[in-house]
């Protein structure tokens, strides 16, 4: 009869989606490591990230049960946090769960890095591949195991796109 309206401060938060109740070791963990040195690169990285994560969610999973278990980890540096949230908002509204991790890649990754198989003519590509964010993928398993109980994960480059057959 009487309609009571409660604000967000009136009681404990409740999970509003059933997939929030999956144990973390049963979640499908996807991981990205992105970085940017400029506003243009930031926009390109975010566009690719949204396309890749969106395709993993919409096409790669292939069903609601998979989508409910998907958790996308984004390790980032040089990207404005508010722009990252803004870019991911449409996917989040569709149900994609994300965990955003601000990361200092240079601090986390060893300075002893090498890329083999490229000659001097490929120095721009070699420089890009030597970036700490590219090497961070080797550090992700330990973090996900310690913090999320993950037994496995899939690391994706931001230009990876899932396509339907």
UniProtKB/TrEMBL annotation:
* Alphabetized InterPro entries for the sequence: Glyco_trans_8 (IPR002495), Nucleotide-diphossugar_trans (IPR029044)
Q: Which domain of life is it from?
A: Eukaryota
Molecular function (GO) terms listed? glycosyltransferase activity
Q: What is the protein name stated in its UniProt record?
A: Hexosyltransferase
């Amino acid at each position: 009869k009487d309609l009571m309206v409660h604000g967000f401060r009136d009681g404990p938060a409740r999970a509003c989606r059933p997939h929030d109740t999956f144990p973390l070791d049963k979640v499908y963990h996807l991981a990205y490591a992105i970085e940017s040195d400029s506003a243009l690169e930031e926009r390109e990285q975010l566009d690719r990230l949204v396309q890749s994560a969106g395709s993993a969610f919409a096409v790669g999973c292939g069903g609601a049960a998979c989508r409910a278990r998907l958790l996308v980890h984004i390790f980032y540096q040089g990207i404005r946090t508010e722009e990252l949230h803004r870019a991911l908002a449409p996917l989040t509204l569709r149900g994609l769960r994300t965990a955003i991790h601000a990361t200092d890649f240079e601090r986390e990754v060893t300075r002893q890095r090498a890329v083999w198989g490229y000659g001097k003519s490929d120095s721009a590509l070699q420089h890009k591949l030597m970036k700490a964010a590219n090497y961070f993928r080797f550090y992700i398993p330990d973090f996900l195991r310690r913090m999320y109980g993950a037994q496995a994960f899939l690391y994706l480059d931001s230009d990876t796109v899932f396509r339907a057959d």
